Amino acid sequence: MCVDGRAGFLQGAVTPALTAASPSWWSVVLVVCLQLLQLSPVQATVCWSQVSSPVNTCLCASDIVSCTALGLEQVPAEIPVSAITLDLSHNRIDQLTEAVFEGLSRLEMVRLAHNQLSTIHLGAFQNTSGALLRHLDLSSNQLHVLKQHYFQELSGLEELLLFDNRIVRVESNALAGLGNLRKAYLSHNRLTHFPFFTIQEHSHPNLIMLDLSSNHLLKLPLDEIANLPIPVQKGLYLHNNSLECECSMYGLFRRWEQRGYASVRHFRQEHTCRVYGIQKGTVRFFQHDRYFEKCNLTAMSQPLSDQESIISVRVGKAVLLHCVTTLSGHSVTFLWVSPNQEYVAPPGNNGSLKMFTNGSLEIVAARAEDSGVYWCMALDQQQQRNETREINVTVVLHRGSESHESFNTGFTTLLGCVVSLVLVLMYLYLTPCRCPPCTKALTPAGQKTGNEAVAGSGQSSILTPTPPTTTEGPGHKTSLSHLYSLLPPESSHLSL
């Protein structure tokens, strides 16, 4: 045995061959042993014993401190300052007091999973590494509310594990200041809402995963989700929630499926929604999409940020105008300017316009004078930023009169055709014959009577599509004379 651990002491007995060897050979062996010293595995040693019980001892291996499953009720006070990774999981720690990690300026990873944490006091992570702490595991605890001060000192945090807690609410600024955050896991909690509007590209430029699956989310704020950065939308996991089956919800996930987002592609079976009116009835809507056959997927697949700035509405109908903006937070205020230069703020004007706190404006019953350009202004007083949006509204008159007019025109045309046909038939078959009595004598072969001319013209112009046959030619004259000679006396004239 050349060396043991990282102590660098020679403990093995020198073999006789090495003892008899020359000094130069021994120096070579010593160099090899020193090189092996750098490659030898790190061995864990006892750091210190807890005062409460000598058995409760933490293990240290280089810059890793492990105090797992020791029944600890609080964070130890004698953690080596050289610690980079601190593992306190599987204990009974119920709170993090102020400056509990004071002096640990090299911490990059803290594991507190499977404890009984319910409170994190203000300044718990004060005087620690702060910007260096990259990984914080608080999973499988008893946290109820994520408050604003919990992580305000951890500007360098990249991964935050909060799954399997009892979180029912996330304060709007709980994740503020975590500009380096890449992944946040909040699944298996009791959330019914989440402040999506606080996640913006300028506040969380590196966020690529936000896991909110297996919560109690009831309805998704589509306008806030549409404003999320695309990397966040790709990594937003919402399966196994209590979402109600709505066309808007269905359209959101269908759009993500078409774009190939991993959050939908990997968990298609777990995307469910509650059927309205059926208690505890759930539908796997990617498999049973017949519940959404009547949904207008074309309109739903278009996010609010891509909606047209030109909107048409019929007289008397209501229309909702969205003030789409990248600004978010409670400090953002909205204001609309109507086409007649009227300033509208919540809750609206005298009744024709209704405005909501999220910035949307509703025209309750559209009138002709409501047509024009509507301006929405969003102002963030804290950041001193403002944005405007323009929407051109056209109020269309009722088309009922046009439909009646087209119906009357068609009916009139049909009636005119019928009357014309009846008149033609009356002319052909019901016109009385007022011809003078015809004589029995036949006319010369080369002449026609007036009645014959009338009959020929009538037959050629009405009853036959071709013009009358010419009577010129001697052969034709002879055939007509022969035909007239065969007619009986009473048929010498034609009667209609």
Sum up the structure in keywords:
24 strands, 5-stranded mixed β-sheet, 10-stranded mixed β-sheet, 496 residues, 18% strand, disordered N terminus, disordered C terminus, alpha/beta
Summarize the structure.
With 496 residues, this protein is α/β, with parallel strands linked by helices. Helix content is 22%, strand content 18%.
Question: How would you summarize the topology of this molecule?
Answer:
Blueprint: H1 16-19, H2 23-39, E1 45-49, E2 57-61, E3 64-66, E4 85-87, E5 95-96, E6 109-111, E7 119-120, E8 135-137, E9 145-146, E10 159-161, E11 169-170, E12 183-185, E13 209-211, H3 222-226, H4 230-234, E14 236-237, H5 247-258, H6 262-265, E15 272-274, E16 282-284, H7 297-300, E17 310-314, E18 319-321, E19 332-337, E20 343-344, E21 353-355, E22 361-363, E23 372-380, E24 385-396, H8 400-429, H9 450-463, H10 474-486
Parallel strand pairs: 3-4, 4-6, 5-7, 6-8, 8-10, 9-11, 10-12, 12-13, 13-14, 17-24
Antiparallel strand pairs: 1-2, 2-3, 15-16, 18-22, 19-20, 19-23, 21-22, 23-24
Low-confidence stretches: 1-43, 49-54, 298-306, 400-407, 440-487, 489-496
| Radius of gyration, whole Å | 46 Å
Subunit arrangement of the protein: single chain
Can you give the helix content as a percent range?
A: 10-25%
How many strands appear in the DSSP assignment?
24
Largest sheet: 10 strands, mixed
Strand arrangement, major sheet: 1-2-3-4-6-8-10-12-13-14
> Into which percentage range does the β-strand content fall?
15-25%
The number of helical runs is 10
Shape: elongated
**Mean pLDDT score, rounded?**
75
Terminal CA distance reads 137 Å
Question: Structural class, from secondary structure content?
Answer: alpha/beta
